């Protein structure tokens, strides 16, 4: 698959099974993330990986946060089980560094680009996944549970694994609806 084919056919897959990427293939995924655009070379990223039982520990962190927010028992249980939807979950955080020319937003955008690059590198190697967020990425107790600092910002959880379903027909989008040549 060449680069343009990958860009034009990128898609998510929420139904994922073992195996998750490992070894050199996983390393390639991280390296793709680390090629994200990065103003002032701040490398403002951290990828926190959960596989196997670590996913249960992540689930406990999410469930505790849900409970603390006063969510209903079903929602707490759903949060606890959320990381089990894929064999690997990667929490992607912007490790925001103080910089006079690079505000936090730019560093968060950079982390988002890293997440997407990792998803595409997974797809290019026969894996896939989905970028998920929800209120989890705005909850400070979840940041604490993951060992993140006060200035850090989760941008999402990349669920990764082997796709269980065929690619659905990708929606055709007409650039004319989204592009305007400034006059
Ligand atoms: C910042 C961000 C957060 C997202 N959070 C969720 C989420 O929590 N749950 C979800 O089902 N999709 C979420 N999505 C959307 C999916 O990642 C995916 O893009 C969507 O299902 C469309 O599928 P596609 O990527 O194949 O076009 C999020 C996307 C972005 C960019």
UniProtKB/TrEMBL annotation:
Q: Where does FMN bind?
A: 10-12, 35, 39, 131-133
The EC number on file is 1.-.-.-
Segments crossing the lipid bilayer: none
Q: Cite the NCBIfam families for this sequence.
A: PRK10828.1 (NF008088)
Q: Give the PANTHER family listed for this entry.
A: NAD(P)H NITROREDUCTASE YDJA-RELATED (PTHR43821)
Sequence similarity: Belongs to the nitroreductase family.
- State what protein this is by name: Putative NAD(P)H nitroreductase
Name the source organism.
Zobellella denitrificans
